[in-house]
Amino acid sequence: MFSFLKSKPKTAIPTFASLGVDIHCHMLPGVDDGSKSNEESLACLRVMHDAGFERVICTPHYQYPRFPNEESDILHRYDNMLLDFKGMDAKGIPQMKGVAGEYRVDSGFADRIKKEQFLLVGGKFLLTEFSLHQQVIGLDQVMFDLQMKNYEVILAHPERYPYYSSSSQALQKLKDMGVYFQINILSLIGFYGEGSRRKAFEMIEKGWVEFLGTDMHNTLYAQALIDASHDKKVIKLLEKHKFLNSQVDSDQVIKTKTI
Questions:
Q1: Among 26, 32, 155, 162, which residue has the least CB neighbours within 10 Å?
Q2: Under 8 Å CB-to-CB from 89, ≥6 apart: which residues?
Q3: Full set of structural domains in the chain with CATH
Q4: Helix, strand, coil percentages, rounded to 5, for the chain
Q5: What is the pTM of this model?
Q6: How many helices and strands (H and E) does the chain possess?
Q7: Tell me: the pLDDT tens digits for 62-82?
Q8: Angle, to 10 degrees, between the axis of helix 38-50 and the axis of helix 219-229?
Q9: In this structure, what is the dihedral angle of CA atoms 46, 156, 76, 89, given to the nearest 10 degrees?
Q10: 91 with 45: CB under 8 angstroms?
């Protein structure tokens, strides 16, 4: 069904082998705007493996009211996906190393902090995101509250927020507070527009970025990842800069304070 996902000739060392772990993707089917089926997930995961990712952590959206996911249901669905994979042709994919979440800082987020209702990346990191349309009010307090509960916070794709520039004082405050930044790989080839591409490179050059992620959603993203894996600027960037993906303790599959 997804035979159109044809990789270009492989290099000796896949482009993203130095990253090893993808900490941000939407490969758990049917729970958000990501993959719609196990078959689509497998097609995308094969591309990710060919591009150099050895391990993958699924991070479905938690966003009220659009994606009102519950951690217990997500854990159940993840286990079922792995069982389904055993009965399918699941060769040539990365190791599945757990399920966490990409948590929108929205009207229900303060309640989540009180309940400590999170699934963590590698049992350690809390992956957060903001609205793409409206700036978060009281952001400093939100991050302070998380840190007071000893969460290691990652902000997903800061380059995609149109209200922040690469020299934003708000982003500088987050860095000063110790918040990690994760850039989307596809931003580096203009997948989300020229503005995001430019900001992504500028933030990396400033030393603001600790993680790269695919943010894989579907086969359109998979085809773009193939293009990124052969992009000369991306390859050069990975040779010049080091990221922390491979240091994520993904063998600690799931850690949550609610389940």
A1: 162
A2: 42
A3: 21-246 (3.20.20.140)
A4: 35, 15, 45
A5: 0.93
A6: 8, 9
A7: 998 899 999 999 999 999 999
A8: 0
A9: 0
A10: no
